[in-house]
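Sample A.
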Amino acid sequence: MGRNIGYGGTAPRVPGSVVIDLGRRMNRILNIDAENASCLVEPGVSYFALYEEIQRRKLPLWIDTPDVGGGSVLGNAIDRGVGYTPYGDHFANHCGMEIVLPNGELLRTGMGALPGKDGADNPTWQSFQPAYGPYVDGIFSQSNFGIVVRMGIWLMPEIGHQSYVITFPREEDFPEIVEIIRPLAQQRILGNIPQLRHVIQELATTARPKSDFYSGPGPIPREAIREHAAKLPLGDVSWVFYGTQYGDAASIAKQLDVIRTAFSKIPGAKMLLPEDLPADHYLHSRVSVCSGVPVLRELDWLNWVPNAAHLFFSPIVPTRGRDAKIVHDIVVRLHAKHGLDLIPTLCVAGREMHYIVNIVYDRSSLDEKRRAAACMREMIAEAAAEGYGEYRTHILFADMVAGTYNWGQNALMRFNETIKDALDPNGILAPGRNGIWPKRFRGKGWEILGTEVEDALEGKGIGPKPRA
């Protein structure tokens, strides 16, 4: 459990730390309330386990799963991960927590703070998020202020659904695609959190190695992508939009007509349904994910290079074509500079999109690891200079990313440090997580900054060091 794929895995930031494995024994589904469409889970409950229990009970409920279903339902939510049904914002769809604080006390948030009758759990703990007074749940997401040991999650009632794919022929269609998505998403015509992918993903999700398509040095050329994409079911295209609509058959048909008409403004745009594509095409995996069925198909792109590892660059960008192009141009240029294949996926909502870049590299090659780290470091800096920040990052880059959120002379970090010192004065819980260092570590050079990231790949500079 706690895979945290692409963001550093289970590794602690400080060498020699004791790792508490909550997945091995704290893996109970404590409650599924079919009438309330909610559940209460411990950290070790995976998406597969929750899905299988709902199926065993024959309940008309869906979970919302991310691309890879093997991880922790609770863990993904507190790291603010996303899925692809209307319940795709996992933290927004949690309701109530039980937390072990650094002093050993138990805290229940939301309505859970009010005892139920005769000592039972409060009957509205998984029904109403804020309760009375300050709403504190957020400070326990992406933080090191406590250990969340129980969490309520809202489930989606089962409903009719239709997945589809729309292809676009030209690279330069990208900004206009984003402009068309925005009003469709804001008006809630789009049924889910859709994905916009570059066509290189069509090659990567075949589970075939890059060498099947290109055996030369450096990144796979656009001409080679075009040549081999032309032989695949979607053909020689540039961008691929994966979406899903929900409702009864008549309402879905009307929604698809509106979406088809909107995207027809882009010459050559083409909509396809699952029945139009072979059974092994990636769209069928999206059908599962977008109807609450966890899968592992997404990991097929780990066959892209030998000994594959990966990390994600994940900035938040306004859903506007001009903003999307600024970030995309930065990413394209820096991938070319460092000789890396560009594999982008955009999870697009009405006001913002998660621009996710998947850097896949050979972990046995120190050169590739250093180039991947340098590319990541430069993307963080250049995107931040334009006002675009990451929502989540690998542990090696946590200090860098935290440092970009520096408005008001680092007011946010000073606030986080104040909370950390109040709740955890001895600094025992996950020091350095997401750049939040306890007082006893502060000012001693524990941060990893700049080119120190590349040195850390060889085990250098992870501990304290003098600062000028």
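Sample B.
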Amino acid sequence: MLNRVFGIFLCCVMLITGCSKNVNDVSANNEAEMDRESGNILVQEEGLSLVWKDLTDYFNVQVEFSPTSYTPKVPEYKINPDLSNVENIDRFEGLSKEQSTKLVNNGFVVLNPNPEKAYYYMKMYNIYEENEYKNIPNFITVDVALHMYHKVYDELLKGIEKEQLHVALQQLTQNMLTKTSILYSKTENEALKHHVGEIMVYFAVANKLINDSYGDIPKEYMTIAQKEINEIENAKGYAKSPLFGFDINYEQFIVRGHYAGDEILEKYFKTMMWYGLIGYPLEEKNPDFDSIIQAMMITYITFLEMNGQDDIALWDKIYAPTEFLAGQADDVTIFDLKEVIMNVYGKDVALTDFLDEQYYDSLLKELGKLPSPQIQYRLITGSVDTPAGKQFRFMGQRYTLDANIMQEFMFPIIRPIPTGLDVAGAFGSQRAENLAKENYLKDLDEQTYTDVMTRMKNKVEALEQADWTQNLYSGWLWTLKSVWTKQENTQGLPLFMKNQAWEDKNISSGLGSYAELKHDTILYVKQPVAEMGGGEELTEYYPNYVEPAVEVYDKLLWLVRYSQINLKNRDLLSERFEYALNSLEEVYELFRTCAVKELENIPISEEENRELKYIGGKLEYIEDTLSDQYSQAISSAVISDVAGIADIGAFLEIGTGLPNEILVALAHDGKVYLARGTVYSYYEFLHEKPLTDEQWHEMLGVEKIVEDEWVYEQINSERLQKDAPPQPNWIASFKSFEDNKVFIPHIEYNLGQ
């Protein structure tokens, strides 16, 4: 295809004469007389003009990050083996022996969803609402705090895509198809027409995906485009592309994440996947000049203005916001190739120049200066023919540190199947590294794994704050680093934070948030293959409690402020999202303040305790402001594929299931009591094809209900998690896999004013 595209365009724009270019026969180009002037006249006559513009320079507004100082001073306390000193143990009837033992040994225990109250597991905050009604002290987890940022981020990205990026992508695609069609119709040279025809097919496929039209293209090219669309719609896995001739993993076109179920977003997803998945090889060793030429031609066409329409501005309108949200492209972009063209051919280049052999040596030298992608296909057997290495993509997928880490641990380096523990380990968790070795290495070389892990940890540790704060994706990862960082000195910390089980819980918490991050950015990130009810006046006081992860709340506060100011600066922040971010900032401020007080053994105020009591309703209200409330009655569970294993035809899926309960033993005024909250349930497993959220919900026992114009979800208690794969066995240190039969009677206990 590269060959065809390049030839066509070259010819079309610069000259319509008989230059017969075949990638394999460049001598024909040398012999042909190319009238560059007439070609330029053609461009002008068709309302086209070449304007080499620069990429819009966006400056991120920096937000100061200052970690909070504190000194832990929590008094020592213990739990009697029979739980006899737990003041409100009578509020938790039905604990099994194993669950009680974990509670005594660790100071906390995590429980599966209780089928008798399945409704309370639809969303992360529902348990807190039940706590409010049944007068159970809240234990507000890092998991809930992280989850709420995911909700804002996901809905924000969805809104930007639907209201702004989709429109820009429609127009950009239509313009590119129109320009290539003009070039095709005006050239009479058959070789050039063949090349332009292929470029035309490339954009006709995209136009069909986004605008539901192939455009007015010749029958023979229409046939190719239709075959390509059929492969995309069937999404059966690896197959030879009718247009490109190499294998494409068409399962990547399965619409998933927040795109599924919305007609506009589904079209946007498939089109961006087409632009981001398909690559034109640019390797300087054993070069494919067809591919190289075509990539330059597409770049050239993009910079052609048609009747004053600025396609570069449209391209940038899509790329710039997604760069801030998800990171920089990992592949060669049109601006990278623009610089190559300027350095080799000059700004007055004609399309026909791309076919001139005399430039090839200098061209390859310039291409050699371009960086290779950091995330590449490594799981390709001889039966799969997909280009790897340096490539041009029209709207390339993005580099992320975590994907880079996963790739380094994949076969043939270490093993074919990565794990989220690789990422947590590289981010500094020795426990995660040990768990990965114990559970996922099997008979493979442990020393090699250790060596790669050391290299990855050094890479992560070398990053400075400026590196972490480039975009929202890296800022989110930076926050997770704090979740996974072990607090070595446990002096003055509460009982439940002084054991390995809590460290394992933190690994799981971080991975749950990581699964949400991957879910939200599935399209962009490159893979290595309620009511707020009132309280009652009660007789006894047990304060609500915030998981004391001060550094995490510091970073979440930074992340929210950074999101708000830079999105507003880019005119991407609507009023409702600004309100949501402001509200979330208030929540994180509350969490941080209370966490510091708890650690320093300072009582929280009555007002702070009241806010913590009603946190479930507060979080529900924030979520309802993000989108149509009638579409909010859906499970918080998400799923995402993060790596492909081509040789066995499978994908590594990571996700969150239904929220789990956590019971934590706390101390107040010399008394021990239990508080309750929710944590992520983390899943990691192989599946034959990428899963959508709806498919994942069905596996968890969540059913979609359609009643008239109402569409909502509810949990079938009889099918609760019956079809779900098992969770990682390493979470057994803190989670009970026995049935949750805990019953909470409605007895009035005072939670404070």
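B remarks: The chain has a mean pLDDT of 86. The chain has 25 helices and 16 strands.
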